[in-house]
Structures are given as structure tokens and as C-alpha cells.
Amino acid sequence: MLKFISFGSGSSGNCYMLATPGDALLIDIGVGIRGLKKACRDYGVSLSQVHQVLVTHDHADHIKSVGSFSTDFNVPVYATQQVHDGINRNYCVAQKVASDKACIIEKGVTAKIGDFMVTPFNVPHDSSDNVGYFIEAEGVHFCIITDAGEVTDEMKSFIHRADYLVIEANHDVEMVKDGPYPQFLKQRILSVTGHLNNHDCGVAIAENMSEHLRYVWLCHLSEENNHPELARKTVESVLRSYGIIVGTDVQLEVLKRTTPSEVYEL
What we know:
The protein is of the alpha/beta class. The protein contains 9 helices and 14 strands.
């Protein structure tokens, strides 16, 4: 049985785990190693089971601890060449990924990584590069899309194939527009290389989900420009307008910014 845990989801740090009975991977490590170890102890999860790390992009809240973890646990880090280059340039990453642990993946190319079949795909964002991941294991199709300025046709195709989906609902548009951020930052967030808003997230789910989509988690919520209940209600309302009933047709939850989720069995 495949298990999923979120150890943090937001600008303070992002990190997710997928685990089979004999293998596990982490997607991004933007949280502190000490907190990650504590959360795993609390859940009875062994980090020694983690044999690989996948990285979406090179912003600090996704990569801060990736080099330290790779070194401490002697595990490879998979990312595109541009993301690896960005990690090496990022001053927020004190411990870089050792060259012999930096593994290159290519967008659109499926690779067997441990127990997982992993397909990276392009996600528009203002980083050196950014990918979502479509992961197959234990007969389950899992998709994660974070830090997405817009939803492309390629992204839609992977949403449609997913049994379980983690997708960004970063902000409420009106909260951004009426908020205290400087204009250049508002423009960045709202741009097609910025972040996905609650309404567009709901539309992306509603227009592309299949009948086998069982569970959706909303991720990477903004602390200043969103609220968990607002994100959930907005997405739920959009789904309802398409005739999709949360709790009946699909389950919907919001991942917390700084608190680990429960352990989900997929």
C-alpha cells in the first residue's frame, strides 16, 4: 500500500513523502532536517527508508535542506539540469548536493526510480525550471503540481490521469489586489509564471478530473493572501458548479503550511 505525508506546504517550507512498503521518496526538502526527523519519529516512519529525493524547482522553500539531507542519508537527488544549476547558485542552500548524488531527469521522460515510475512535466513558474511529477507505484497514479502560474494542456492531461492529486491553491485574487504587497510583487504572483489562485485551481480540477480521481489536496497556500477555509470553500464551490460534490464524488483537503499532515493510505 502506498502512503503519503506532507511535512510542510507553503512559503515556509515544502516537503512531501510517498512510501511503498519497501521504499520511499521525498518531493522537495524546504523544511528543516530536525523538524523532519521529529515528524517521522512521531509517525513511526524511518527516514532510512528514503532512497531518493525529487525536486520540483530551485526556490529556497523547496530546496533549503536538500543538500544536507542527501549528504546525511547518502541518497541521490533527481532534478532537471537547470534545477540542479539553480540549487548550486542559491545562497540559501548552505550544503549543496554532491556531484555524485546529482541525478538528471528530463521532462516528458518516464524513469524507474526505486519502486516508482516517475514522469516529470513542465510547470510554468519564475524559477530556473519547474516540474510537476506524475508518479506510479503500487497500482496508484499520483500527481503533484505546485508553484504554477497557469494550467497548461500538458498539466491537464496528467490531472486527468491521477487517482490522487496535490495541486496549488496559493491565493485569493482579491486578497492579493487589496493587500499590502508592493505592486511588482502583486504582478509577479498574479502572472502566468507566478502562482495558481483558488478559483483557477478549482476549474483545473473540475474540467480535467476523471471518475477515478479519489482525493485532492490543496497545497502551497499563501499566509498573507489566502486562508485554508477560503481555499477549500472556493474550490468546493467551483466543483459544485460543475456538478461535482465534495465528499461524494471526490475528497478534498487543505495541507497545512507548517504542520505535518496525517499519514494517508492510498
